[in-house]
Structure formats: structure tokens, C-alpha cells
Amino acid sequence: MVTQAAASILCQYIEGKTVVEIQDFQAETMLSLLRVPLTANRQRCALLGFKALKTIVYSLDGGPL
Fold it and tell me: How far apart are CA 2 and CA 6, in angstroms?
């Protein structure tokens, strides 16, 4: 459940952002968007979509998102 909720929040947050803004987006900010305390294991789940997004953005070589 936390993975799905975090992915939904992530999608809403990055909508309209530039690639540079997404590159500057940090894991701590993602966790703060959730507004609930999470254990270490649940933090890993919550950051799954974030990590996938970062992988995609850094593999673009400057192309459009």
C-alpha cells in the first residue's frame, strides 16, 4: 500500500516539472511529501517509484522526459 500511495504522490508532485527539477529532487523531500513516519523497511518501499524515476531521468542523456 505505501508503494502505491507514494507512487501516486510522486506522479502528482513531478507533473509539470523540468528534468533539471526532477534531478534536484531528493529522497528526503519525497519522504516528507508522504507526511507519515515510516520504518526503514517501509521507507524503502515508499522510495521504489522515486528510485525508478531517478534511474530513468539520469539515463535520458538530456532528452525530453
Answer: 6
